[in-house]
């Protein structure tokens, strides 16, 4: 079930298990006490783990607690691939995937996301990137930096590729609960009974507390593909350097249960409002092509770089925008996606309005039709 460092009586250890995986029919699964599987805390329930000691017959480790989602990714990549092998990551995508993979000698190959299709995966391209050394596919839905969230149908297409090539999926779900009003998030592991999935998340983004360093890996493995090697390796790795924060572990029940329902809803509403405002304003600026996000906290904006002859690429464009206007955005190259830039939408609305004006002034000055 769970490996919880602080799993003693009195300081209840917790584990988090995806609700759909939490059926007593799952072989060997010991479910003790579920108290938080209501909508509003989507995707998982927390189960008290007083009975989940190693040695208990049928023990299955379903959750590994980690020091944030970054640590979860580090552990997963370390376990799933050997040096010289590779994994597939999205382009544009969160830069940590490559940083972690390369740091342990694992190569990355990138599959394209399509800006004119709400950043859906180019499925043919994804498939073409798979070779004999490919060990897993990372999917980040909703996406940083794109702010996209995939439809059920599209996730099924991705799962089909993984199933066909017998590749597990690593699902970075840190923005799972962060979708704009009217949009819907589907949990990848809930859509397959074949593809083994290691999902990872943390409280960092959802509760705006990245410094608290608390995350987890959930093992979705209905067919026991991970049983022989991966589960054991994850346990051993989580024991090598114990990274979980016991203080937060003690508080996690309250964090997940007692946070007012409208806390997240009101933030999402504000971010969605910023997104709509920003999108409207960016559409008016000659030379820019924003892509409207549906989730997470970001928007990607394309730069028609040939219309800005003063700048060679997005990095020069952004550097100048910082020095001219004090507007700081990340150039697309940070996500291996040149001639775009990423805007963060979690700022007060007045700052978004001001930033729009400054970006417009900046573009007007350098645009050549
Ligand atoms: C911020 C972020 C992470 C890292 O989260 P921590 O819990 O702070 O380590 C991982 N993946 C994505 C997509 C992120 O945006």
Automatic annotation (TrEMBL):
Cofactor(s) for this UniProt protein: pyridoxal 5'-phosphate
Catalysed reactions listed for this entry: L-tyrosine + 2-oxoglutarate = 3-(4-hydroxyphenyl)pyruvate + L-glutamate
Protein family: Belongs to the class-I pyridoxal-phosphate-dependent aminotransferase family.
A Pfam family matched in the record: Aminotran_1_2
E.C. code: 2.6.1.5
Keywords: Aminotransferase, Pyridoxal phosphate, Transferase
SUPFAM superfamilies: PLP-dependent transferases
Protein name: Tyrosine aminotransferase
Entries under InterPro entries matching the protein: Aminotransferase_I/II_large (IPR004839), PyrdxlP-dep_Trfase (IPR015424), PyrdxlP-dep_Trfase_major (IPR015421), PyrdxlP-dep_Trfase_small (IPR015422), TyrNic_aminoTrfase (IPR005958)
UniProt entry tagged with the keyword Membrane: no
Subunit comment: Homodimer.
Record function comment: Transaminase involved in tyrosine breakdown. Converts tyrosine to p-hydroxyphenylpyruvate.
Residue intervals of the Aminotransferase class I/classII large domain: 63-359
PANTHER family: TYROSINE AMINOTRANSFERASE
Keyword Transferase: yes
Pathway terms, separated by semicolons: Amino-acid degradation; L-phenylalanine degradation; acetoacetate and fumarate from L-phenylalanine: step 2/6
